[in-house]
Design brief:
The protein has eight helices and nine strands. By secondary structure, the chain is an alpha/beta fold.
Length: 281
């Protein structure tokens, strides 16, 4: 089992012991270096595909991220912002679809080979998923993926990242757009990693990303291949995949799957309205 952790920049990072990641393969991004004075952990891989690099404070933190990682993946459109003495650590990305606004991104946007291109729709986590998959990781853990972006507090501080001065990029004031795009990007990753037999676990403390099975970080890091625990979590993932299907009618005709959905729903103590599903049969 080849594991990696993708490190988002949500406020939940302040509730985590990032030192647990010190000997773990990780991908982090953007202004993660603000946290470096609070932890021994440093990312193996660093990622940046944001035009916010044009801002001096962003550029300074992004350069620190490159310095402290073993290898960096940077959108080739940002090359002019990266001093030449950093280029030896950088692999340049052809990144696409960053300007799209939709709840239904096309599966064709996904790339199984980051050397050809990556899709940067919705969130920096999406290129991270594609890079991890391209590098051959079969198991992906998520931390700092809180989602549910909201406006600044009365003091003007950023509520959406681990640091109040971080600054929320994207569509200024259009938080519904940001949230919808981010969730759609995670759904795109969910669908395409399943095709590659890659299992994703959400190890974020709290947050609203409930699309992947939840697992505390320490348990994720101690997962063994084909463990009973992993089998149970994969079964839950199967349940989530069923609910994500485009045509409920096709699924509901299979009463065995109905029973599986019912069983997992009861285990999760979720009430999802069985009468609604049976109306499709």
């Amino acid at each position: 089992m080849k594991k990696i952790v993708l490190v988002g920049n949500g406020p939940s990072l302040n509730s985590m012991d990032l030192d647990l990641l010190s000997n773990v393969d990780t991908i982090s991004m953007n202004k993660i270096s603000i946290l470096f004075d609070k932890t021994r952990w440093r990312p193996k891989y660093f990622l940046c595909t944001t035009l916010n690099i044009s801002k001096p404070d962003w550029r300074a933190e992004i350069l620190k991220g490159i310095e402290c990682s073993e290898k960096s993946f940077i959108w080739d459109e940002l090359k002019s912002y990266i001093p030449e003495n950093y280029h030896w650590k950088v692999e340049w990305l052809n990144a696409t679809h960053g300007d799209q606004i939709t709840n239904h991104p096309e599966d064709e946007w996904w790339s199984n080979n980051y050397k050809d291109r990556v899709c940067k729709f919705g969130t920096s986590m999406l290129p991270a998923y594609q890079i991890a998959a391209s590098l051959g990781y079969s198991t992906i853990g998520l931390v700092g993926c809180d989602l549910n972006f909201r406006p600044p507090s009365g003091s003007g501080l950023d509520n959406n990242h681990f640091c109040g001065s971080y600054g929320t990029p994207g569509f200024e004031g259009c938080y519904d757009v940001l949230n919808n795009n981010m969730l759609a990007a995670h759904r795109l990753a969910f669908r395409n990693t399943k095709l590659l037999n890659i299992q994703i676990y959400n190890c974020t403390v709290g947050g609203s990303l409930d699309y992947f099975p939840r697992l505390p970080l320490d348990e994720y890091l101690n997962l063994k291949p084909y463990s009973l625990q992993q089998k149970q979590i994969e079964e839950k993932s199967k349940y989530l995949e069923i609910l994500d299907a485009k045509s409920l009618g096709q699924i509901i005709t299979d009463f065995k799957i109905i029973d599986e959905i019912r069983e997992f729903s009861l285990l999760e103590n979720q009430r999802i309205g069985w009468n609604y599903y049976f109306d499709y049969t």
